[in-house]
Description:
single chain, alpha+beta, Immunoglobulin-like, five-stranded mixed sheet, five-stranded parallel sheet
Amino acid sequence: MHASPRLAAAALVVLVALLTACGDDDAPSTPLDAGVRSDGRVEMDASRDATTTLDSGGATLIVVEPAVGHIFLESLFVRVDSASATRIDVYIDAESTPRCSDDGAPFRCLLHLDDVALGAVSVRVVAQPSGEAVTIPTTRIAVTDAPCTAWSSWGECVRTWVTAGTAAGWTGVTYENRDGDHAYLGELERFPSITGVTTDQGPTNFGTSALHMDPSQIVVGNASLAYGPMAEGWQSLPRYDAERFAASYARMYHAQKFFWYPEHRDVGGEDYFHLLAPYVGVWQGSSYEGFDELSKWMLALGAFRTDTRAALVSAGLLMPTVRMADLRARAGSDRVYLTEAAYPTATQDVATEQPMVDRINGMPADWYPPAVAMTVVEESFGPTEQPITTADAIARNWRSGDTAARRIVVDVGTTTDANGHALSFHWRVIRGDASLVRITPMADDESRVELVFQPHPERNVTFYGRDYRSSLATVGVFAFNGRYFSAPAMVSSYSATPGRWAPDSND
């Protein structure tokens, strides 16, 4: 599956010199049973007018979302208030079977309507036991009204859009190679007006260079390097440097900068990664094998409408939006996007360029994805078990040898939509055994939850038709603004030994 490593000799010396011991003993695990409610409750927002109110016999059914005439892409969020209902059922058009039922107030349902035709869609909410009903007219539209019709892997459509003035192009975009030019994307003429630079190798001045500190620069880069080889084996840059550069990755993610790296031996039969994080890209394989990911991201940056890209840059949401579009294109549907299947540790080459750039080019400047901002309120993970805490990724490890469950309370209440659209929050186990993770809402709008992790025994997870063994458990939280889900923010726990070295046999 992997190509042989092609590490520049000078870069290899630099990386080996940086190595330090970064592991400890394996922590034993004792799996315990725990329940999970995967979809959150959403509060009734008193500041917003009810869409429709039906009075019958003194009872009132209030549909807070969706609004009459709401336009959506694939998923629809319904939230309802009722003084008397014990359950709501939500139907689509003339269907006799509800698409969703909820028996816990405040009532909410997330509907995935990828099987519903474009055009008018009637949403009927029925309160039980009274049978009161409200029907809300909505409309489903395509991700773009001008889809790509002449496609190749190098994106003739995008260049056509740029020439026609309907896409931003690559002025102001920089490709940065950080591996001494030995794995350079090349053929940059396919992205007219892009700037290509080669800088210091690997982690040298990462996050502190003039390019990385300049908020006006849009940058996608790579460093096709790994730590090693040595007797212990290998560690990829994003795994070894996960803690050291967490703050830099997170800052640059919201300042128009994103970097890709090979997993090189870290993700074979054994997956050695101890966290998932949205702000760094990891591809399956070694040098050169990430050109698929790099070229997709370059096409995506060029495909935005000019005003949309400018708005995203201003809001610090450009790279989170590209990240979402990439992952969503790979998932193929919203329902899969919210599951483990959409989040391999390392990506492989798949033909998703066209749906990715169609989604991006169709995105208006007044309705684009939000980004979740997390804070930790309290937790029982000890100080030595807290390697990473950022707004986008939190990582925790069992380091003390204790097998007791750990809890962490996470708040996302500061998350906003840049254009003022109402948000709902959706928490999902996107890696690991959901029976070993408990998600408990601590606020009606799910802006605060308690996560309880049990130590996670190694299990098989399947991506791209291949099994990988992993001890990682990750909860993703997604903000939904009525059209787009955000890229996930991720909370990971790891009960094996972080910092282990991967052997060459893990290929």
